[in-house]
Design a protein that fits this description.
single chain; about 375 residues; mainly alpha; two-stranded antiparallel ribbon; two-stranded antiparallel sheet; about 65% helix
């Protein structure tokens, strides 16, 4: 939902501060809104904690979204927040340049980089079926990229811009994977409430981006990718005018913030209750829905190549997360139950464009 709302705002035209009608193209301001949505999770955490304490509920009987260690330095969340900031900003730029469905599918690259970085820095050993899953994901990414290369001329920016957007999304997945590894290495071991962790990353991300918006307003990059009137890297004043002048833009922006807040709160509350199978299937369904919505909204044209890429990516995700395909093979072909007991990193990308939450280690 978050990506669709962001895309809805990006596709809307509105009058800016110079009186000209143009598309809403403010990726860094959208990233600021995303971090504000995450920051509200900290407010929700504090409110829930105060409520349960007022009711006299012991810490060990509080919901999973509230329980956890509270004796830690909040600045441990600053490094992951910085990588989150870079990844989110780059992904919003990429979303402006490519199709929403390609954006969603290319985020599957997170599996590749998370797997490789976990081997390099967390000393995790990947099983054969995980390597096979990574291979399928890489093949799916190549197919999706080929689709954009062939059909990109029909897009808003043309094939060169679409390929640039695709590459930016891939780069963002490297940064998101780095964020995940940092969270796993330095944050997860402290047993912090995932809702609180998301909130603190939102605080640091919001403050850092708010500070960066000041120099961005004075950095001129021309009107190549960013189409604000003065050619600045970001122009929050122009964005404010556009949001005031078109309810679609305002709704898309506010809806993005609210959906991020709700998604993190609701998602974290049920993460422990769902399996890796459910997470993987739901993410695949979500990607397919994004593709259908993009077609119905006429944001892109139907492509059999892209559809093939989606199914190859889905096979890779199922293999890597050890759901459906391998369990069915062991049960009906080999007739042997799966005995895997090692934890698996759930790399299903959340809807808000972050990496994964701190509760995404599934056993």
């Amino acid at each position: 939902m978050t990506n669709q709302l962001s895309r809805w705002a990006d596709k809307a035209q509105s009058v800016g501060k110079d009186g000209e009608l143009r598309l809403f193209n403010h990726p860094f301001l959208q990233a600021l809104g995303m971090f504000f949505g995450e920051f509200t999770c900290l407010i929700a955490f504090k409110a829930a904690l105060a409520y349960y304490r007022k009711k006299g509920v012991p810490d060990d009987l509080m919901p999973a979204s509230v329980t956890g260690n509270r004796s830690y330095n909040p600045f441990i969340f600053f490094p992951p927040a910085v990588f989150d900031l870079m990844a989110t900003s780059i992904m919003y730029v990429g979303l402006n340049l490519t199709n929403a469905s390609s954006f969603q599918m290319l985020r599957g690259a997170l599996i590749v980089f998370t797997g490789l970085l976990s081997v390099a820095f967390l000393n995790r050993k990947l099983r054969n079926y995980e390597w096979l899953g990574i291979s399928f994901v890489i093949l799916g990414l190549i197919i999706v990229g080929t689709s954009d290369l062939i059909y990109g001329e029909g897009g808003t920016h043309g094939v060169k811009m679409m390929i640039t957007g695709d590459l930016l999304i891939i780069i963002a997945q490297v940064l998101t994977a780095t964020q995940m590894v940092l969270e796993e290495k330095f944050v997860s071991s402290r047993n912090v409430s995932p809702l609180e962790a998301v909130g603190w990353e939102g605080v640091f991300g919001f403050l850092t981006m708010a500070i960066l918006l000041l120099p961005m307003y004075y950095i001129n990059v021309g009107q190549t990718i960013f189409t604000n009137p003065d050619g600045n890297l970001e122009d929050p004043i122009d964005a404010w005018y556009q949001m005031q002048n078109n309810w679609v833009v305002m709704t898309g922006f506010i809806g993005t913030v609210l959906s991020i807040s709700f998604f993190n709160f609701a998602g974290i509350s049920v993460t422990k209750e769902i399996s890796a199978t459910t997470r993987t299937v739901l993410d695949s369904v979500r990607t397919f829905v994004v593709w259908l919505v993009s077609l119905m909204a006429q944001w892109e044209t139907f492509s059999l190549i892209q559809l093939a890429g989606f199914f190859v990516l889905m096979i890779g995700m199922f293999l890597y997360n050890n759901v459906i395909i391998r369990p069915a093979y062991l049960k009906y072909v080999v007739k042997k139950p799966s005995t895997d007991t090692e934890p698996v990193i759930a790399v299903t990308p959340p809807e808000d464009g972050r990496g994964v939450d701190n509760n995404a280690i599934i056993t």
